[in-house]
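Customer ticket, subject: "Can you confirm the structure for histidine kinase?"

Message body: Hello, I'm evaluating your service for our small team and ran a test protein. I'd like someone to confirm that this is what the system normally returns, since I don't have a reference to compare against.
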Amino acid sequence: MDGVPTLSARIPDLPKDRPSPVDRTAPVPLSGDDLAAFALEQMDQGVMLVDADLTVRVINGRLYEMFDVPRGYRPGADYARIVQLLARRGEYGPGDPDAIAARQLERARLGDPALYEHRRPDGRVLEVRTRRTAGGGFVRTYSDVTERRRAEDDLAIQRHLLRLTLENIGQGIVLLDRDLRYIAWNGNALDLLGVPDEILRSSPTLPDVVRLQIANGMVEMPADAPEFGDDLDAKTAWLMERIGRPEREFVYARPQGDGRLIEVRVVQLPDGGQVRTFTDITGRVIADEALRQGREILTGVIDAIPALIDVKDRDGTVRLTNRFYRETYGPAAAPPPGAAAERAAALDRLVAESGQGVPFHEDRAPDATGCLRDWLSTKMPLTDEDGEVTHIVTVALDITARKRAEAELRDAQASLIQAEKLASLAQLVAGVAHEVNTPIGVTLTAISHLADEVGRIRALFEENRIRRSDFQDFLEVAWESTQMILSNVERATGLIQSFKQVASDQASGERRSFDLAAYIDEVLLSLRPRLRHTRVTVELDIPSGLIVDGYPGAFAQVLSNLIINALVHAYDEGASGRILLTARRLPSGWIEMRYADDGKGIPAEIRSRIFDPFFTTKRATGASGLGLSICANIMTGTMRGSIALEDGPGTGTRFLLRFPVG
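Agent reply: Thanks for trying us out. I re-ran your input and got the following:
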């Protein structure tokens, strides 16, 4: 403590020579001093009487106990020595003991202060009262108020914490007594009530505050309230009848004049009072409304998506579907049982167990009418905060029309490819016919000349005018003619045989073994009429004996389309050029063949589209845009290989063809 404690000495013991009465039930007669001493010893307070010269006149035993000192000091002791002893023991705190003792003695002489608290080094609190006596001395009493002070401190801390809690919570809180008068409130209550603090400090009643709120526009009358005009008392009475004294805990929402919506909770107390809490729920209501609108928008968007969407929980129960789903499977919103439904359930279990989605895949399943439809489906998991799968989302696009269109397109492409093959075959027929025409013409001329010579020598023979020289001339003419006939017939036979082979390959599409270099020669032979009218040459760098077990007709179609495409697009009319075909066998058992020309090349902006069906830059001149598309289809399909456009040095176009040997 910051005060001056006094050391408790002791009242003298009662006289030992006092005779004890024979009747122990009778009170022991005591003198006045003895009674005073006995009373001092029974007190819970420590008491000390000091005269003007600082001599201790009275000290009781309780004071010894309070300061935890031996009872060595008796009445008549010097008070200054007692104070010095306590100062040296640290009773008054750290510092110079003599200086501290001097200050304590000076305060004791002056009796200032008359009442103070002294906190001992052990933490106990003593309440010290000092009263001056007529002779210049003083009487000092010491009361141990440690427990009381601790209880008061705890209560103050609790009240402080309660006040901090009330002031920092987001709600307004007021306490009303049994007469509905305001007796306590926090800062938020002032804001939500719209009432100044000084008004609540005047202890108004609930009706008073409600009337004030109605008057200043802080409280709006409910929509179902009667029309009271400007009668504040009637409005107040009507509200109080409904919200003043509810029989049980009561919650209602109250619109305020500033646009906020306040939730009021009324709790009745046993003594008739109330606790009222006020919560601003404007943000929550706005958020709920935004959430509701968001859900409506999301539902509208999902319903507008032309795809089947459903959400199932882990046990396979459908929790959410969109309009397309319901239109597909009817009001029951469940796919008909069958193999497709079993596959879907198995995929749902896989997603639930693995936590991984299923990528888009094609499937076929019946709709509610039993009609088979093609779907492009995917499945995705929905997880909670712990990563556990709670729901499975399925999205399926109806690709029935697309699949039908693809089938029709494949049929159309097959027809176009067949037409292109027939066109190539017709071109081959025309070319072979043109090539065969020359040796046949020469043969006919030689035969005619030989026939004339036979007729002439026969006439001479019949007239018996034949000479040796005539016969020798006939033999020379016959020999030359027969040699000419034989060579041209062999040439025509070779052309026809080549035509038959290439035409048969293109018409039948059968698989057989063929020599790559020799077969390319045969294909080029069929293209010779087309090449003859240009200044473009085709050169080969392909080793002989490179046998391929494949589809020569399909390969001839690819090669013909590449060369004709170059003649149409790569070279202007009358321009000279060179096309080089090279091939080699790879160790992996594949053929790598390269096509290269020195034409104009393909612009960069259309290089990615050259294999697209019907894409052409020469449609005005009759090009169909199918040449390279057919090449790509044949190489990837029939030939089980690939074709790619290559970049290279200089101008021109380069293609890389790869296909297996067998």
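A couple of notes from the result: The longest strand covers residues 372-383. Confidence is low (pLDDT under 50) at residues 1-28. Feel free to reply with more questions.
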